[in-house]
Structure formats: C-alpha cells, structure tokens
Design brief:
Layout (H helix, E strand, L loop, with lengths): L7 H12 L3 E8 L2 E8 L4 E8 L4 E2 L1 H14 L3 E6 L2 E2 L1 H9 L2 E4 L16 E4 L2 H11 L8 E3 L3 H6 L6 E8 L3 E10 L2
Parallel strand pairs: 3-5, 4-6, 5-7, 9-11
Antiparallel strand pairs: 1-2, 2-3, 8-10, 10-11
C-alpha cells in the first residue's frame, strides 16, 4: 500500500505514535476500522488508538463502541482518530471515559519538522518542581498555552502540564520558554 492509498486516519495515527514516542505492539484491521495497541514507554501503560474512516458525524455510539473495545483489550485510555466531526455529547462522554478525540484538525504530518515550529517537551514531575522552585511561582503564573494548540495535541499534553519550548534564536543561540497548559 502506497502513501496515497493509505487512509488519512492511519497516517495521522502513525504520526501520533512517532511524535509521542509510543511503542507499537499490535495493529488490527476490523470492520472498516484499524486499531493500534501501543505502549507508553516510561509509564508501561497501554493505549488503544482507533482509526474510524468516516467524514460524517461521530456520535456517542462510536464512543461506546470504543469503550467496549477498551474493556476487551484491558486498557484504560484510548484515542479515536477520524476525519469526521464529533457531536457535543460524544465529546463530553469521551472525556468521562478516558478517550482522547482527534478530528480533522490534527495534522497528518510531523508539524515539528517545519522551520517555524519550535520543539515542545512535557516536563517530568521532577523538572516541574525544580522549575517552580527556581522561579518561585505557581503553575498558573506561567504564560499559558491552550490544550487545543496543534503542538500541544501532537505531544499529548493535558491541562495542568508544563511545557518546555526550545526555539532557535539568532542572538542567544537557543531560547527556552515555559508554558502552562490550560483548557481550551
């Protein structure tokens, strides 16, 4: 199968796996959907990535089907990737069930390869504490970045996380900025 023949959802899934440094354990094709079972290397927990090739509306029934699959596969978190739109009920239901929804807005390529997009990293709990102690601030006092930002979604940061953003600077060489991820 060439890149042109590969469904958009699968390309997005492969980019997501690479960006978040997940370890691919298994790929299963089933009833017009593709499932990827991946492992988060540092945490040793499994995540199910479910690609739904639909350009229509994705409702609660899809979220419930994915939750059933999660129980069968014994995983706590999942990611649904589709080219369709999500209903508001599906979004709120997915949030309660530990499912991350990625729609058509998620890029099908590595956005960090672009010259204008700086490197983003999620701080570890230890790095986070050191940063807050060093600058004597609370997390909410740092500059904010929305959870809906494409770079934030790409690396999998959640509201409450702190990001390190490393930019190239013509005068300073490397410029490091920190951002607090907020809802939005």
């Amino acid at each position: 199968m060439t890149v042109e023949e590969e469904p958009l959802e699968e390309r997005k899934a492969k980019v997501l796996i690479k960006l978040r440094k997940y370890k691919l354990l298994e790929r299963v094709e089933r009833e017009n959907t593709v499932e990827y079972l991946v492992e988060v290397p540092k945490e040793k927990r499994k995540i199910l990535i479910w690609c739904v090739p639909s350009s229509g509306t994705i409702g609660v029934q899809f979220v419930n089907r994915l939750k059933k699959l999660m129980k069968e596969r014994e995983v706590e978190n999942a990611i649904m990737i589709t080219n369709g739109r999500f209903t508001q009920a599906a979004k709120s239901n997915a949030r309660k069930k530990g499912i991350e929804l990625l729609s058509r807005a998620f890029p099908a390529f590595n956005i960090f390869k672009h010259v204008l997009v700086p490197k983003h990293e999620i701080l570890t709990p230890k790095e986070r504490e050191e940063l807050l102690q060093k600058y004597r601030v609370k997390p909410y006092q740092l500059p904010a970045i929305k959870a809906s930002d494409p770079a934030v979604k790409a690396i999998g940061a959640k509201p409450g996380d702190i990001l390190r953003i490393i930019r190239d600077s013509p005068t300073a060489g490397k410029y490091v900025a920190y951002r607090y991820v907020i809802e939005g």
